[in-house]
Amino acid sequence: MNSERWFAAATAVVGLQLPGNACFTAYALDAVRNLDAVPNSPFPSAESVAWAKSLLPALYIAVVEEFLFGAIALVCAVGLFRRSVWARRVLVRASVALAIVAVLVIALAPGQWDTQGIFILFCVLLWWCARKWRTT
C-alpha cells in the first residue's frame, strides 16, 4: 500500500505541473499571436514570423491538454489517496489519451518533445504500475 501512496503523490505532482506548463504555454501562445518581424531580433523576417505562427495549432492543443489532464490528474490523485477503485481506471484511461495527445503535439511541433516526453514517461510509469496492480 505504501507504493500506492507514493504513486498518488506523484500523480498529484504531475497534476500540479500540467497547469503550470499550461500557463507558460498560454503566455507563449499570446506572444506568438502578437509577433511581428523586427530587424535584429530572433524573428527578423516575415518568413520567420510565419514559421513561428505555424506552431499555433500545437500550442492551442498543448494548452487544452495541460489544463484538462492536470485537472483529471488532481482528481485521480485525491481518489488514489482515498483508495477509490474508480481512480485507477480513470487514470489509466486518461493516461492513454494524454500519451496520444502528447505524440500529436510532438508531431505538430517537434520542439515540444522535452515537455511532452515527460508526460509520456509518466504514462509509461502509470501503465507499469497498473500492470502490477492487476497481478496483485
Net shape: elongated
Structural class: mainly alpha
Work out the strand percent. under 5%
Q: What is the residue-averaged pLDDT?
A: 87
Q: Residue share in helices?
A: over 70%
Tally of alpha and pi helices: 5
Secondary-structure element order, as H and E? HHHHH
Number of strands: 0
Number of domains: 1
Low-confidence stretches: none
Radius of gyration: 18 Å
How many strands, which pairing sense, and closed or not: the largest β-sheet? none
Give the terminus-to-terminus CA distance.
11 Å
How is the secondary structure organized here?
Elements: H1 2-33, H2 46-53, H3 56-81, H4 85-108, H5 113-135
Summarize the structure.
The protein has 136 residues and is mostly helical. The chain has 5 helices and no strands.
